[in-house]
Every structure is written in C-alpha cells, then in structure tokens.
Design a protein that fits this description.
Distance between the termini: 42 Å
Largest sheet: 5 strands, antiparallel
Number of helices: 8
Number of strands: 12
Order of helices and strands: EHHEEEEEEEEHHHEHHEEH
Shape: globular
Strand content: 15-25%
C-alpha cells in the first residue's frame, strides 16, 4: 500500500465527492471539510485496503480500478460480498457502526487508487446537513432490503436461477456483454453453489447458446430464457 501526497488531493477529493448523488446538495465548503486531510492510496492487485476487525476510522472513494469486500468462512474459503468500482464509496456504513470496527476485509481486485476520507468530518456533516443523513438512511435501508431479498432467494432458488439473476442484474449496468467482477470460484461462493457446479452450468448454457464466453467475459444471448428463470425473484416493490 502506497500513500501519495504529491498532488492536491483535498481539492481533487472535493471535486470528486461533489459528483456523487449522496453529496449533491452539499455546498463547496462542506465538501472541503469532508476532504480535509485526505490522502491517495495506491494498491497493487490483491493488496488489502483494510482488514476485518480493524478500527474503522476511514472510508474510501475509489478513483481507479475496483475494490472487493470479503470474509473468510470457518472452512477457510473466502466469500466476496461486493465489488466497488470507480465513483463508489467503500466502508461508509462502517462509519456508523456502534462497535467501530470494519465488518469485512477490503482488497483491490486489480491495481486500484482510493482516496482515504476521515470518519469525523462525515459525522459532523450529517449533523449540519440533515439531507445527507436522510440519504444515507435511504441508502443503508435499501441495502438491507436487498440483502433480505437475496437471503430469501438463496434459500428457495436453484443454481441456474441464481446465476441467471446475477447475470441479468450485471447486464443492467454493462449491457449484453458483461465482465464478471469476481472469479468463478468467488462467484460460486457468492451464489452459494459449488465451483464445479457453476463451471458445468456455464458450459451447458454455452452449448445451448444461452451465453457465450469464458473466464470473466460473457455475452448474454438468450435473455428470455434467463428472465424466465428469474421470474420468482420479481417483487411488487
């Protein structure tokens, strides 16, 4: 992990934060307060940004590459829960946790650059600007709701249904040709299936013409088939 201070990172961070929907209603001076003492951190592939259980004094804005958050299970297998690309905030929820610790590890999935931002100015901003606190509540509530739905889906769905929903959600951001943010082994863990099962499923779908590709690069060639599999995941709200 390399800390870089050669550029005017507070000004860069002020500009970058101002582009985020969370801080859209925040004035420039308040953004500068958020960005005070910010530094840039450069990460090599698979280098950790922070570890589970460490004191959570910082959250991070990804400005290059991608950062994934993960835990290690009792079986020693790593489970990746999410990946954060450029323009995403990492560990912002941890800034408000009562125990004050990071609940997961964070690791660069490739070469990455993050801006490190302090917890205290964020807490002060929430007191000064209630609209930011409300947006944060909305964001965190939406995340909890999504996870509740995912738990329900995982307990009631098959491996093909889980994979189809994952690919369709990924395609909402990337289009018909998608790049998996996780390795196939990590994705298998995320979907709650064996890596061998996932590999066979991709191979079968490719033979049938539902998808094309290999590794992390896949093309969705039969959306009606995938949508039909995910019908049970649709909710009224």
């Amino acid at each position: 992990m390399t800390k870089v201070n050669s550029l005017n990172w507070p000004e860069i961070a002020t500009q970058q934060l101002g582009t985020l929907p969370l801080f859209a209603d925040v004035n420039t001076e308040q953004l500068r307060q958020l960005a005070q003492n910010v530094i840039s951190i450069e990460l090599d592939v698979d280098e950790f940004l922070f570890h589970e259980g460490a004191e959570a004094e910082w959250y991070y804005l990804v400005v290059k590459g991608s950062v994934e958050v993960l835990r290690y299970g009792l079986d020693g297998e790593e489970r990746v829960f999410n990946a954060f690309g450029v323009g995403r905030l990492v560990a912002i929820a941890a800034m408000f946790m009562q125990h004050g610790r990071y609940p997961m590890h964070a690791r660069a999935s490739g070469e990455a650059v993050c801006l490190r931002l302090a917890r205290k100015p964020l807490n002060e901003l929430c007191l000064q600007a209630p609209q930011v606190a409300l947006k944060l509540l909305n964001l965190l509530s939406s995340t909890v709701y999504q996870h509740v739905n995912e738990v329900e889906w995982l307990t009631a769905s098959s491996a093909p249904q889980r994979l189809a929903l994952y690919l369709l959600r990924l395609s909402e951001e990337q289009g018909d040709d998608v790049t998996l943010p996780l390795s196939q082994r990590q994705l298998a863990s995320r979907l709650g299936v064996r890596a061998e099962t996932l590999s066979r499923l991709f191979a079968h779908w490719q033979t049938c013409g539902y998808v094309t590709g290999r590794g992390r690069e896949w093309g969705l060639r039969d959306r009606p088939f995938l949508r039909q599999l995910t019908h049970g995941a649709a909710r009224a709200f």
